[in-house]
């Protein structure tokens, strides 16, 4: 967005020498530091990969896939082989012997397989939503860190311009002192002013380095996204598919599926036994073979399954409350972002008015100083007001851009 941060058309010639460095819009320069910079969406994706968070959703998918494969089989658990050997060798010792082998196959009660598949589906859905929620959270972090860098750069630029202004004035004052038109005290005063501006530049450089280091640590990128300024979102109301709400909704859906599974599992699982038996009545007698089938049916007492069901219900209740809290939190964040955006607009308009007045006052003060109608102290005060108004104007412009980004974030918009 091409905006001009300071009007210099009415300033004296010594001050206008600074204007070429200000012709290019500071906001545009800060938001687009490199022609090769990635888009905001690409930077967010890079930061997300750098964080390692996608592994969480991948683990959920793997869990869901494993549960789906397990529930698609005929057996509800691992089969087992039961071997029995019976002999009267240490009792009657008449040669009685019985060998029995049974393969036990755990089966499903009606509804148990469907309940487990429901949990598998809920896990898969939650993994997809977790991807979206992670992108949204990272988008907020990248937005905030990038705008911190922009704000720090704007402050640094303004401090550098103020320092150059003070140095140019120092040259003018030194010449006037040499000509006997000003006292040596005035030269000392302007030197103190230059020293203060140098300290401001040093502080601004430190703040800029810290902000840039934080951005690089988060994203692994050296340049800010291009463009950084975001257009207003096409939506104005809280969408139903907001990432925070979707995450809470799917967490509740998973808890409900696990509750259904707990209720379906209260009776245990039936076990089908398929086996064979070889029997010999006494020594020398012929043996007899037989095939046997067995079916084990668990009773499923309510007292035994109640703790597991109660635990699942408690988790479901917690997720239900979490969904309500997420709804309230998201609505509150959107309201706050709207008010902040509106306030940023109003603050920018006021800053423009203050900057215009400060520039007019600076023009008059400089003219009066050149004509000897006012002293150096008054000129420095007026310059300080103009400097502060220019810095405030740049900050307000940047804060409006950040407020728009925060509003988009509150609406659940993820840059592409």
Automatic annotation (TrEMBL):
One annotated Gene Ontology cellular component of this protein: efflux pump complex
Membrane-crossing residue ranges in chain numbering: none
Pfam families: OEP (PF02321)
Highest taxon of the lineage: Bacteria
Gene3D superfamilies: Outer membrane efflux proteins (OEP)
Major localization listed first in the record, in broad terms: membrane
UniProt key word Transmembrane: yes
Record's subcellular location: Cell outer membrane
Entries under InterPro entries matching the protein: OMP_efflux, TolC-like
Keywords of the record: Cell outer membrane, Membrane, Signal, Transmembrane, Transmembrane beta strand, Transport
GO MF annotation list: efflux transmembrane transporter activity; porin activity
Annotated signal sequence range: 1-37
Family (UniProt): Belongs to the outer membrane factor (OMF) (TC 1.B.17) family.
Protein name: Outer membrane protein TolC
Source organism of the structure: Ectothiorhodospira marina
